[in-house]
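input
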Amino acid sequence: MDEILFHISQILEGLQVHLHSGAQHGRHLLHNYSEQMNTYAVDVWSGLRCVQIWENIQHAWQWLLEFSREMKRLSLHILNPQQMYNQLLQFLGAEISWTNMYFGCVGFVLGGVLGVAVGFSWQRNQPNVQRMKAVVCNSYKGFDALMMIEDAPVPVITMPDEVLVQVKAASVDLVDIKICSGYGRVLRKQLNQYNHVSKNVTGEFPVVLGRDCAGVIIEIGQKVKNFETGDEVWFVVPYWMQGTMAEYVVINESHIARKPKGIGFEIAASIPYAGTVAWDALVNQAHIHSVTADGKRILVHMGCSPIGCILIQLARLWGAHVTATTSLRATPVVQALGAHVVVVCGKADVQKQLAVQEGFDIIFNTEGSVAYEPCLKFCKPGGSVITTETSEIASDTYGFFFGSIYAFWIRIRCLIQGPTFWRTYNMGPAVLDQLARLLEDGSLQPVVDKIFAPQDAELAFQHAESFEAIGKTIIRFRSQRLLKSITTGKKYTLSKTSI
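output
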């Protein structure tokens, strides 16, 4: 043991000697390097190049001092009041006096004041901007942002293929409620910058609500071929455009179709948006039509919704077997629309009632993504669920980085393809004309629950969102004012239309 301790002590002493030697060697090297650096710095500072640089700096400083002194001397010479006065006397003549100078200055000041006053009073006649009622959201804070305003500027025709429509009635849809909370705000803001529609839009807010309407054309552009003043029309617009819930709307001719004959404006306004969405879901997505519908088992979840009411009728008309879920209040309406089986929500377990039936080939979910998974359980093998409610848009959640990339991408596409690239063609006149024929021959029955005035817009939206709503909620516009055409100067008498 002692021998082991002895060897360890020898090893430690050896390490101590090496460490001490290394430290001494390091200090010696550091001292040598510091002396070398000091010598190098002194040589550089006293070198010829450094001396030349220092001399150049001194020469530049002396030149600046001389230049400033010369400028001071010249300014005193040029701006010398006595010299200026003498030069003025030489120019005007020897007969001028201080009295003449005094009155001349006074006249100059008075003339300047008079000129400024005339300039302020000379104002061009400002164009008489006409105002209208509109239901808008002025922020993206939900129902708190919704309001009816009476001083919205009447839109004007800015393109030769546009028409000015006096809106008689517009409908409330759930997508309008989502727009109040910011749905589509990024795309709407970007497209308004590159679309001619933005000439009637002064900023991001207010956003006019409403996706569809029925009304009368009161003015047309120079290149409008298929419509005339006085034609009764209806149309639907996508979510990124300014809406239809206003007394007047400017819209491109390619968006509009003739209103069905013999149907009032309030009734007609309940169809365009819900009808085109239902048609797209049934025909384009589910591939159900008059030939393929026979023998199909279809479930319409929440058949009392605006879209559900139309889905039930179209599917039944084409020969499908239709089951619909609905609220207790809407049960008679859903039965009258043609549903073979009606399942009342809230009365009993809906899933148990649906489980005892055969599976469904197609399930139309009009409630939204929250009901997608429950609906999927009742599909046949190979069946599908089609959700008709709008889904969330990814661009609404982009931050600064991805938002900037998205804005650049939109601009490039607008430059190449134009803003109409975002036009939803399944909402165009072709579908509206087919729906109009079904309405005119009685194959399709509109369902209007309640009609509100524009000042009761908040109540209308609350009712449309409630579980008790059946079909469409309508806002009626009844303008009796004179609207002067901005392009022709004519006045159009806007009277009430009896329904």
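quick obs: DSSP finds 15 helices and 17 strands in the chain.
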